[in-house]
Design brief:
The complex is a heterodimer of chains A (about 350) and B (about 500).
Chain A (H helix, E strand, L loop, with lengths): L1 E5 L5 H25 L4 H9 L6 H26 L7 H18 L8 H27 L3 H21 L34 H18 L1 H11 L1 H7 L3 H28 L10 H11 L4 H25 L5 H16 L1 H4 E5 L5
Antiparallel strand pairs in A: 1-2
Helix pairs in contact in A: 1-2, 1-13, 2-12, 3-7, 3-10, 3-11, 3-12, 4-5, 4-6, 4-10, 4-11, 5-6, 5-10, 7-8, 7-10, 7-12, 8-9, 11-12, 11-13, 12-13
Chain B lengths: L3 E11 L2 E12 L3 E5 L6 H8 L7 E6 L2 E3 L4 H6 L2 E4 L11 H6 L6 H15 L14 H13 L5 E5 L7 H16 L3 E6 L2 H7 L2 E6 L2 E7 L5 H9 L17 E10 L9 E9 L3 E5 L6 H9 L9 E3 L2 E2 L5 H6 L2 E4 L3 H5 L6 H5 L10 E2 L2 E2 L1 H14 L16 H13 L5 E5 L7 H16 L3 E5 L3 H7 L2 E6 L2 E2 L3 E2 L5 H8 L4
Parallel strand pairs in B: 3-8, 3-9, 6-7, 7-8, 13-20, 13-21, 16-19, 19-20
Antiparallel strand pairs in B: 1-2, 1-4, 4-5, 9-10, 11-12, 11-14, 14-15, 17-18, 21-22, 21-23
The chains are: A mainly alpha (about 350), B alpha/beta (about 500).
Amino acid sequence: MIKIVKRDEPSRAIFFFTPVLAIFLTLVAGGLIFYILGFKPFEALKFFFIVPIADKYGFSELLLKATPLCLIAIGLSFCFKSNNWNIGAEGQLTFGAIVSGGVALLFYEQEGFYILPIVILAGAIGGMLYASIPAILKTYFNTNEILVSLMLVYVSKLILDYLVVGPWSNPEGFNFPETRQFSDSARLPLLFEGLRIHAGIFLALAAVVMSWFIFYKTYLGFQMKVSGFSLKTAKYAGYKGKKMIILVFLISGACAGLAGVGEITGPIGQLHREVSPDYGFTAIIVAFLGRLHPVGIIFASLVVAITYLGAETAQIFMQIPKYTGQVFQGMILFFLLASDYLLFFKFKFIGSNK
Amino acid sequence: MNTNLKISNVTKIYPGCVANDNVSLEFNSGKIYALLGENGAGKSTLVKILSGVIIPDEGKIYLNEINLKLNSPLDAKKNDIGMVFQHFNLFETLSVFENLIIDSDEQREVLREKIDSIMRKYNFSIDLDIPVLNLSAGQKQKVEIIRCLIRSPKVLIMDEPTSVLTEQETSELFLSLKKFSEEGILIIYITHKLKEVMELCDEVAVMRRGKLVSVSEIKNENIESLANKMVGQNLKTIKKKKEKNSSVKLINITNLNFISEDPFETNLSDINFSVNRGECLGIAGISGNGQSELFQVLSGEIISDKNSIEFNKNYIGDLNPQERREYLMAFSPEDRLEQAAIPQMAIYENVALNNYKSSNFFNNGLINENKIKEHSKKIISDFNVNTDNIELKSQFLSGGNLQKLIIGRELITSPDLLICFNPTWGLDVGAINYIHETLIKINEQNKSIILISTDTDELLKLSDKISVIHKGKLSKIMDADEVTSEKLGILMGGGN
């Protein structure tokens, strides 16, 4: 007989093992789905997960997709660790892109080393501003940050839509919904000739190091941790709990805004309707798959980035819709949540003694 | 009709703990049985098994020779076993009547009739049509009891029923219970209060660490013998030496008011008192009369008018808890797991919650882990916390050990004033004694204490002066020597 018993203490080993288990189960389930659709499972999985990153270009694309995911997830980890459910990173990304794009357009056809830093800063500020809305509403008016931040995603997308179709659209653009191309001084430099990977990856790595340092080494990180577990305790210890909430939202918004900057000043080079293929939402999965730990988030962002690439490859070579990628992302989260059960419970095999 | 309830070889094992170890007991109607034991002795597990909340690993329950299968609380109700839990299961915003009929499918009129007759019979006077949130704790308990009586139970189990009651309410409850017993209901009374056992019960079963230690008749026992059985060692009784206290004022509260925006909180009005050095001021009251708000105002979680609190000749009413700690105040809140400590964090991290400046726990914004750990080790050994692993998450400490850790943490600054709120709530006798001794020691070092507690015995034992809080107002401050628990009870109930 198998009995399920509660663990005395969540197992540390299981804590890091469940993400691996979740990925494995996703592969199995994915293979099964491919099989039902009439493909050879192993071949399909190969197209999905190995072919896309088999060459230099593919690997560069992987890093390109992983960069915004990692950056946003790092930001989100600040929120999630302190029990603030910011799920509007997509909106903060979009708004960051709008602000930095607007600044970049101001410098249209201008040169100067100072332009890029200003554009980047503008993106971070844009993201922070946008994240401050749910934060302030939550702290001073007791609104639910999940709803507010989520709804603001659609607001930001509509603002972007309006801008690229209307006032900011390219005068010589034949009415395509896009702005002018930014000047080279407003764009993140490419790292290698012929590959799309750009300097934004350093922003992501810097964010990883910074978040690790803040969380594990500073008083600020300690206060965030305490406030996240219990606002009552934070108050009793004399911490400023409300400020802490606003701060984590600002950090999170800044990271998402930077991800937006990376997208428009990196591979795209202009503003158009689709600045992000839902990186802001997918990063939620990345954050949890990475266990809200900086190093875990690096790995998780790489894994999830593959699903973006794999979906495209599969669409080209196997005529599978690219939305399969989202199916895989969904499955990863699903299996992760399911295997988290093992964190708190274990199976016990009991002989039939009675 | 006679009722016979038999528990036969019941065992319940939790990971790392045997909650009930082969317990067998027999009860007969006509008597009131006490189930006595410290916290964690296994009595709650046993009654939860009886009421179907927990399913035992082994063992059987018989009611009048019939083997009962109790897989859910509903099964227990169907088999005429009624239970009143320590924490009320009532819907605060529904009316009393709605609460009473919620789990019954009989017609409303029939039930109304039934409830009226029960109330008449036992002299309960409760307005059935007001929301439960307007009731006192004692009345809420009566509602719970009526809810059991509607089903005319054969067995009625009361789990620590007096923890929220005044002395008067307690004696009313005892009268009712005796009446129920005369009418043939088998009463099982769970408690760790020895005095109540002596006063109310006919037979007593003592549990310790999951095992049944003894079953005996009350007339063969006294408080000391029961206490020793319960704890398993001979207890020394502590008594505070009453000394002449200094007359130097340490803290002085003048015209302190607090008006809450939250309707579930109590407003404080016109609080005035002072505490001298080396003195312990006890504040008695039934929970929910403003103790929590008073604690928060004193600790700085709720900020008040700057001049309303004078501490050591400084006006500190507008400072937060961390700033007040710099003036050598310390605080031990009531809720250990949700406020005073963070269960998911390690012991040493919990120590760092008391971050006074000279601690150097945090330098230039960075965590000084070595310093924190060093201090944590000192607290653990100085205050007898039963572990040597400061990286252990504090949720794995027992209530007593956690409380020692918290008090230890608060005392590392050697504060002039310790404010504690129900410091021994839910602890076992051993831990209670330890905490009491510690508090007495603080007074002996000429430091002061404000002790907010719902435990009258504790207050009488430790305080030099006592005041009672009722509906957010303090009574006049009395000398502890001149106060009796009866007098406190009257004041706690709002009398004069």
